[in-house]
Amino acid sequence: MNASDLPAVLYVDDDALNLRVFDANFGQKFRIFRCSSPNEALALLEQRRGEIGVVLSDQRMPGMTGVELLERARTIAPDAKRMLVTAYADMQAVIDAVNRGQVTRYFVKPWDRAELLAALEDALKIARLELRIREVEGRMMKSERLATLGQVTAGIAHELMGPVGYLTQNVTSLQRDMQPVVQYVSRHLATDPDDEVSSTIEDLPSLIKDLSDGAGHLREVALGLRTQARGEDLETTADVAEVVSFAVKLARAEVRDRARLSSSGDPVRIIFGPVKLCQVLLNLIVNAAQAMEGTGRTGRIDVRWAATESDVVLSVVDNGCGIPTALQERVFQPLFTTKPVGIGTGLGLSICRELVTQFGGQLRLTSTPGEGTEIELTFRRAPPP
Question: What PROSITE patterns does this protein map onto (predicted)?
């Protein structure tokens, strides 16, 4: 943990001399923030949420007493230890505040340096321990949820394999059985033309091929889910143009009413499984489509890629709402999401980055709030066959 990440002390006093004395006594020991008014202190607490481990305030200040300040500070920073410096004349108000749990400790003026130093050190030690406990609890909950997710994933993969098998077999039979039907209908159309039937007959091979490709993709997805649940991974290569084309088709329903989706790039192979690449692209395209909500403008999503001698750089660019700067790293944390309940799981970007880095690639996010986001993926280029 960096020094800047450790809990800090906030000292509030309307007397500038007291602020300087406090800083002279404890500035070398702790990371200190100083405020000369309660409103300034509350604004700082809002801005520095999670950083302040101790709030120490003078009791007598214009506009708001120290007790009132600490009562409001408790709402903003509930984990911070709240201490008060008071005169004997204010003791009853302080004792009442202690009994209500608004103040954890108080000191009578003039405070003793050794006593106050020991109290601050103890309070910050407790704050650091509580911070570590919360971090460990968070990791344990995350691990438990991810382990459960792995079990669910394995079960889904198992359940998918049966229907996918039937679908694949039936598509193969449909391709075989439709050939004589098409030939028969085509002969009759020669003597009895029908534009609607002719159009249907022309579209059938393409429709059946899409159905076959979809069945094949579902099978690969099920196998991929099973492989990931088992912790296995096989290195394969993918044709970027083919996978992008298929991912665009799959995402069409999600994107249709939100944005115009385009793709551009030449055929090139990368060291990355086609199913995994499709999974990554679908996540990124759907995220981009959902980022259009509330922007009030025509959405645009561009998927483009270009190759160098050794790498292929693939970008998904949108003109959506963008991501706040403070959240641009957190969006890659598992289970973190800014979307409403039922919309996001908080796993999409985390899984994307994990899959890409597993294969030696890189994922970089650039976002401007209110303007849009670009996610750039760098893959190793596959050697020529």
Answer: HIS_KIN (PS50109), RESPONSE_REGULATORY (PS50110)
